[in-house]
Amino acid sequence: MAELRGTSGGRARWARLTESVESRLWPLPVAAVLLAVLLGLVLPRIDLLIDAELPTAVDSVIFNGGAETARSVLSSIAGSLITATSLTFSLTVVALQLASSQASPRVLRLFARDRQVHATLAVFLGTFAYSITVLRSVRATTDDAAEFVPRVAVTTAFVLTLVSVIMLVFFLAHLAAQLRVETMLKDIHAETDRTIDLVGAGNEAARAYTAPVQVPAGTHTVTAAVSGFITGRNHGALVEYAAVHGLVFQEVRPVGENVVAGTPLLVWWSAGNGTEPADADAAAADDVADAVRGAYSIAYERTAAQDLDYGVQQIVDIGVRALSPGINDPTTAVNALGHLSAIVASTIQMPPLPAALADADGNLRLVTVTRTTAESIHDALAQMRHYGATDPTVVRRFLQLISDLAYTCSAGEVLAALQEQLAALDLQLRAQSDDPAATSEMRTAVADVAAQLAGAPVTR
Predict the structure, then answer these.
(1) 375 φ, ψ to 5°?
(2) Of 179, 210, 241, which closes a domain?
């Protein structure tokens, strides 16, 4: 099982760590400020050592002004960079507000983890911190000391300023692209594809337990210590702990579900007699609870680290918002359905998580819980069907999505879920009377797709 932990468990932990760091604006800018301060302390000392030995060719390129000029240049750079940083932050806030109102509040995380925003703030704040650090080393002529101008350091500040200006230009161009809803959908789709690859690799690496599973009457329950969304779980750690202590775990809630503190998170029992948990004293039960809680990640909001349905939810939110009377943008809803079609198809085709996991000796150690394929299809399609049934363009794209999913995966459970959506759409269309001609046309199209699904060969 060490192999399992080293592959899926390690990748899952790394995904959660990178998600946590990348979704915050401060780590990279703070690191840039610290590095800039260090550079601002070191370069003037280097200047002091090499200033007299600089060759003529280099001497004509670097800064050649006096102390007052150097102070003026560094002060101007520091002041302008603070202004540029304020502008960048203001534009980012405006972008967040537009994205929240026009698309979905859940896409704000895309902007918060945008590397271009992080890099721009890092360069601006780093240049500011470097300039004021070098400024303190500039010294005019006094009775006690000669004038000292760190020429290489001032020249470096000038170069960093030029880099900051270029970064600002690229940032404005990037921000204009990021505000387009098509870019948001593309980024969510790419992020969800990475999650599908990660989760699918973990599922494929898991060691399945194929014998029948019997849950005894005597079990212990581990409750959640905090409230929030389950953002990740480490199956490898749970299996290893259960193998060492002779236990069997059974999950109660899947990733992405909201859990309340004090409610069940997982149950466990002894793998020995199957009736009473081994070492069932309070101290042992507390140790098991601590180990289980350590294998789960619970946060106040969902993330894409291991949550397959989070990306689907974001795209559904954008599509539903586009169909609202205040926005009335069916084209965006059609584009959202296209992304949903690809994501749901990839989710259906990825390796499934085994219903139970075994240890290296083949003993049952963990009974898993996942959402069924029918539930995933319903959550991806139900809202778009409900709110888009009045628009012929959206209905046609919805029916194409149904056909595409039926073509890519003809399993009985998938076809049954798709037929359920078609039946629900037909009921909605029957109740509509605003445009009888369009309604009749859409019902005919629904009947054609239903007939196509009814004649599709079913795979098991």
Answers:
(1) -65, -40
(2) 179
- The token duo for 409 is 């995966």
**Count of other CB atoms within 10 angstroms of residue 101:** 12
Q: Which two tokens stand for residue 132?
A: 């004021």
Residue 81 lies in a domain: yes
pLDDT tens track for 195-248: 999 999 999 999 999 999 998 988 999 999 999 999 999 999 999 999 999 999
The Cα 433–Cα 445 span in angstroms is 17
- State which H helix or E strand residue 409 sits in: none
The Cα 307–Cα 254 span in angstroms is 9
> Residue 365 corresponds to which tokens in the numbers above?
């150690």
Give the residue from 158, 179, 200 where a domain finishes.
Answer: 179
Structural domains of the chain, count: 2
Distance CA 148, CA 34 (A): 24
Is the pTM higher than 0.90?
no
**φ, ψ for residue 264 (rounded to 5)?**
-60, 135
162 and 20 in a common domain: yes
CB of 359 closer than 8 Å to CB of 1: yes
Q: Residue 171 carries which DSSP code?
A: H
What range defines the domain where residue 282 resides?
Answer: 184-324+350-370
State how far the Cα of 423 lies from the Cα of 440, in Å rounded to an integer: 15
